Amino acid sequence: MSSPTKSPYWSELASSLSPYVPGEQPKDRKFIKLNTNENPYPPSPKVIEAIQKTAGESLKLYPDPSSTALREAVAKRWSIKSEQVFAGNGSDEILAFAFAAFFQSRNNGESAEPIIFPNITYSFYPVYAGLWDIPFEKTALGPEFSINPKDYAQSTGGVILPNPNAPTGRALDLNALKEIAHAQEKSKKVFILDEAYIAFSQGPGLGSMIPFINDFPNLLVIRTLSKEASLAGLRVGFAVGSEELIEGLCRIRDSFNSYTVDRLAQAASAAAILDSAYYDEINNRICSTRERVQAALSALGFTVIPSQANFIFASPPASSISAAEFLAALREKGILVRHFKQPEIENYLRISIGSEEDMDLFLAACKEIANL
Residue 234: which domain range? Predict the structure, then answer.
């Protein structure tokens, strides 16, 4: 049954929203799924063991509302205080809390400065802004979808950036991110850094900003275990920042749902965070596959944006069919990738990095579709 475009039972808010549309999760046939940036490798055996140990009589009891073991695992991994860690049901939930906690709404009776984020970025950001009635401005990207940190050093209502950016895969170095954090701290505005793909960012000057949260009291770093820890089906994320920022998130959570992370998820996530050796190995393998596939696509005539994520952003050869047609042709061959209809990127495809075998089949299909 199709959903109505409007209902007399909906609130004015519900009627005004344009919800986020996730990538296709097919049920009718088996596909090679390169469309939702899932990790192609299984979670750590220690994660499965932790779930098995926890799946018992204790499930009749509510989980720890503070996710203490999970927060302590994060604190141990990054040598920070557990009071500087917040846990939630995936990074999307934490992002929603963060928008409410740190960005000013129009309906507070004051003139709210707009927050800023790139015009090509994670498409949930304008959805959150609409949900909380937060004014926003989109900043244009530079050549090859690059981000200029000086664009985010102006007076604003706050800044949110993904690093690496999605769907482009481009990453800013640590000095650029510190420049943004410092500029926003001058006016006591929050800089939310969405590090969903940071585990795949490798190279000089690149990396997580978690080690610098004590230098910037306005910096909130949000991570998800969906990609880097092969736990997309578990839905756990965490945020790291000053105790002041963490308290702000807790105030929103505890006015919404204080028991956000269930017992199984808390145990599994703590085990995943502490098994860095396992995840470093599989994520390095993904990065190696990414480099190989980028080179192969370039050789086929694709325009490839250099990626620091677990996906590639590429445009089919000029002599070939459009990106939308390429998407359809890949689907006919049982391969799913992601296409965005936004004008600036409508001739690009976002291709998640799968296993070596998956990517070999993908490249063979691309060569066949492009008649090469």
Answer: 45-275
